[in-house]
Amino acid sequence: MPSPRAQVLIVDDQPENIEVLGETLADICEIGFALSGPEGLTQVAEHRPDLILLDVMMPDMNGYEVLEILQRDPNTREVPVIFVTARIDADSETRGIEAGAVDFIHKPINPQVVKARVSAHLERAQQRAALAELNQQLQDSLAQIKAAQSRLLVLSTAIEQSPLTVMVTDLDGHIEYVNPYFTQLTGYTFDEVHGRKPSMLKSGLTDPTIYRDLWIQLSQGQCWVGEIINRTKAGDTYVEETHIAPVVDAEGQRQHYVAIKLDITERKHAQQKLDHLAHYDILTNLPNRSLFLDRAERGLALAKRHDRPLALLFIDLDKFKPINDTWGHAVGDVVLQEVARRMQACVRESDTVSRVGGDEFVVLLLNLNTPADALMVAEKIRVALNEPMLIDDKTLSISSCIGVALYPEHGQTQMELSRHADAAMYQAKERGRDRVVLFDATMSSA
Fold first, then answer.
1. Where's the Response regulatory domain (predicted)?
2. Using DSSP, how many helices (H) and how many strands (E) does the chain show?
3. Cα(29)–Cα(25) distance, integer angstroms
């Protein structure tokens, strides 16, 4: 958890949004706020925060314009900026990342996701600052080793006690020094690695072009920063954020290379969990609405390019509410999980089953041979959901109403297809439930 003294500035023209974010983050950092882009820039100039939560859509000056000004100023360029927006389209996120934002948080916010992401970025900023400071101190001290013996002694003590891996090699890459944390992390003692090359740590999982670029930059006298996947003596893999710099003498000649490396394995795992949480339903592990919309847009693009049919299925469960009311939500959750499993078993790996509401599901069928294939899959799902479920020694039964809309007959866009599949699903309800209904134009007029 980052230091409680970390400063986070929230820039949003809606006070209620600032209040929600402030309450969410109050226990991990100190909060400042601004109600417009210009006011936010003024506050940043007066007191540089550790992180900025920036709304995209604001009057007078939007978030992209604010970030552009921050990026032009060397004093604020390194302040991490997270966009907070209700827009979930891929183009907006791409534009934000290209502008320099480090992350995107969607409205309405998930407090756990917001707190975890802000904590991760604050921690990373603090670690980077500490890493950069130590790297600079190490380079300065090694270059002045003869004139600063006392300073070297202090620094060497810091390196020996550092929770970062420190390695010194000659110009050919042979290891001359490693600190104790290297042994703690990798399992190799100094005697085992002395005179050998760091390639002994290779896991085979790092792109070879990374090593090529690394040596090109070092041979040109430049520093290199990147991520490398290594392997311990016991065979476990780990990810390191690596900073390597050449050490030059008074004449500017390279003498050594110094590598300072931060183990970011846990951070990577945490980020993967956060990414999964942001795109998948917690209960069923199916893609959520956000991920489904993204796949639907991509699927439509492919269908248009290759002139192949595509189908959207809207599925609403019948008799689910009585199960919840009678047996409780715990049993209802197990029913939803079984429903998800059965629907996934009815489609191909290239198709997508998504949970978009309590007992509402959507299925995206790609690359169909004929439109009739969509009706066959829909009927297969309907029959599968009709099979009784044995849960906690109880035999439970549900059914489903399934509405089907086809591309290109029933719409050219995701919105049109969704609206028409939804209309067909409601027709299935009106016609007595437990059935599949294909959209037609009379439903649209109705």
1. 7-122
2. 16, 17
3. 6
pLDDT for 13 beyond 80: yes
Determine if residue 173 is left, alpha or beta; phi over 0 gives left, psi from -120 to 50 gives alpha, anything else beta: left
Per-residue pLDDT of 278-304, as tens digits, reads 889 889 999 999 899 999 999 999 999
Q: Which of 233, 230, 243, 261 is nearest to 164 (CA)?
A: 261
Give the count of beta carbons closer than 10 Å to the beta carbon of residue 17: 19
Buried/exposed 282-319: b ≥16 CB within 10 Å, e otherwise: eebebbbbebbbbbbeebbeebeeeeebbbbbbbbbbe
C-beta of residue 49 within 8 angstroms of C-beta of residue 5: no
Asked if residue 99 and residue 58 are part of one domain, the reply reads: yes
Is 395:388 a contact under the CB 8 Å cutoff? yes
Stated pTM of the model: 0.51
DSSP label at 249? -
Kind of pairing between the strands at 399-407 and 435-438: parallel
Where a domain ends, among 216, 244, 267?
Answer: 267
234 — phi, psi (to 5°)? Answer: -80, -10
Cis bond leading into 198, ω under 30°?
A: no
Instruction: Identify the CATH number of the domain in which residue 85 sits.
Output: 3.40.50.2300
